[in-house]
Write a structure and sequence with these properties.
alpha/beta; seven-stranded mixed sheet; three-stranded mixed sheet; 10 strands
Length: 248
């Protein structure tokens, strides 16, 4: 039996696949399931929701709480709203707009693949690794603080897992979230190992900033990589409150 399993694994790996037990992996799905369970979060704030891929992954993992999604691209936001309506009434979509440290307006650079869109200029390293991510147009967006927008949408009780995927603008979103941080049990942010956007923090700076807010690294999920060179370019860091981790 062991020999048969070994042969199956070898065959799958030869074609770029593998079979592993989810609880033994650092796949995003399992990392989020673990973080929600460990933090006790009953609210998920999905910043940079795109079409709702993260929210659906959370719901597919058995999450029964409230999911609130935020998206700035108008066309993508419309698809997100329809997707949420078809899924569950506990999935709320905020008004279309960007989030940052200060209220105002900005120009959002739209990528060919939409998920790489950012308020920051994209570096050639990103385009080289994923040509489909090159900017193709832009749109003017209003920028709000997350703590002001989320207050009226969040349930009165419960702690949140705050996920931020804003292509280099993550720390600016966090700086605009200070009012809800006391109700935040966990944070997931995208962190770059290689500079991909001008003005974006690197892995070390992002990790240090989140730690300064009273959180500690709980899990790391491998993300964007250059498929030609094999170099890992971005990871997602999942952080829990230090006191929560200390009690585990």
């Amino acid at each position: 039996m062991h020999s048969i399993k070994h042969q199956i694994h070898r065959l799958l790996r030869r074609h770029g696949f593998d079979i592993v037990r989810l609880e033994n992996t650092t796949l995003e799905y399992q990392a989020i399931v673990d973080a929600i369970r460990a933090s006790g979060a009953t609210i998920v704030l999905d910043v940079g929701a795109n079409e709702g891929q993260f929210a659906e992954m959370v719901l597919d993992g058995g999450f029964k709480g409230c999911v609130i999604s935020f998206e700035a691209i108008e066309e993508v936001h419309r698809r997100l709203v329809e997707r949420a309506k078809q899924r569950t009434s506990s999935w709320i979509v905020a008004t279309c707009g960007a989030l940052g440290a200060q209220k105002g307006s900005a120009k959002l650079n739209l990528a060919g693949n939409s998920v790489s869109s950012s308020l920051l200029p994209m570096r050639k390293e990103h385009v080289s690794a994923l040509p489909a991510s090159e900017y193709v147009s832009s749109q003017d967006v209003r920028v709000e603080r997350l703590d002001e927008v989320a207050q009226s949408l969040m349930p009165e009780k419960g702690m949140a897992l705050l996920k931020i995927d804003t292509q280099g603008f993550e720390l600016e979103v966090l700086r605009g979230a200070t009012g809800i941080l006391p109700r935040t049990a966990a944070i997931q942010i995208e962190m770059s190992l290689v500079p991909l956007y001008d003005g974006a923090p690197n892995f070390t700076d992002a990790k240090s900033y989140v730690e300064s807010l009273g959180f500690e690294l709980f899990s790391v999920v491998c993300g964007f990589k250059n498929r030609e060179t094999g170099r890992l370019l971005q990871v997602d860091g999942v952080f829990l409150r230090k006191e929560r981790l200390a009690s585990m």
